[in-house]
Amino acid sequence: MHVAIIGMGKMGSAVAHRLLDTGHTVSAWNRTPGRIDQLLQRGVRELPSPDLGDESIEGVLVCLADDRSLLEVAAPQGKCRPSWKRTLVASSATVSPAALAKLNDLYGDRFVAAPIVGAPHAVRSGTATFIIGGGSAARSGFTPVWDQFEGPWDVGNDPHRASVVKLLHNNLLLSELAVVAETVRVGRLAGVDDTTLKAMLEETPMLPAGLRNRLDSLFDPAHPGWFTSPLAAKDLGLVLGLAPDGTRLPVTQAARESYLLAEREGWDQADITAVVEL
């Protein structure tokens, strides 16, 4: 399948590598120059703009970070991008259900919400999963892409549901991580050394697999990774927005405030595990 990837951050680049590894053709565009230089050497075709000049492109996969950037590219001035009318369109962004509803209204059966569960390294290895919800034509048309990954997790023809499921997933990850970080902090204050704390977290049945693979970053003072505190706060804000006004969600709210504080204290470029520094 010939896929155009729009947005070549860590996730978009990882998807491109995986598709190239499995024999697909990839074109790409990124707003910031230089992001796809390495991929050009692998045969990626660089697009001069999000507009598709190559009629062999069968699907567009948009890998952007938030509602604003997604809608600016996929729905300029609130309208379909003309060159995308003949292709399938998928959004892998973790964004609000309202943003996806706008794209669904514009592109209809050719649109699918496809947020990704998994880190970039899981995407590159094919062990990540797409949560897919949207038009039947798009859900089935992107099968050559879904087949290169675990799953997909098909939630039906409603892109809103795919967005909600991904946000609920991230709520679990981010809220649980905040608790783990606070547990480490208490352990340190009580005089337990990091070697013992890490061994405890590696061995306890109380820690989910999705957090277990972040332990190295949790105990690394540089906190390397790809999922930053600003993104975490953005996602938890979207989770809070799912509930009716007046709904009390104190745990989610507290977790969001923790990531906002990590961002303000200078950890905005580090992995979410930097919340342990608080």
Automatic annotation (TrEMBL):
It comes from the Bacteria. This is NAD(P)-dependent oxidoreductase. Residues 3-146 form the 6-phosphogluconate dehydrogenase NADP-binding domain. Its EC number is 1.1.-.-. Belongs to the HIBADH-related family. Residues 162-277 form the 3-hydroxyisobutyrate dehydrogenase-like NAD-binding domain. Keywords: NAD, Oxidoreductase. It holds the Pfam family NAD_binding_11. One of its GO terms (molecular function) is oxidoreductase activity. InterPro entries: 6-PGluconate_DH-like_C_sf, 6PGD_dom2, 6PGDH_NADP-bd, HIBADH-like_NADP-bd, HIBADH-related, HIBADH-related_NP60_sf, NAD(P)-bd_dom_sf.
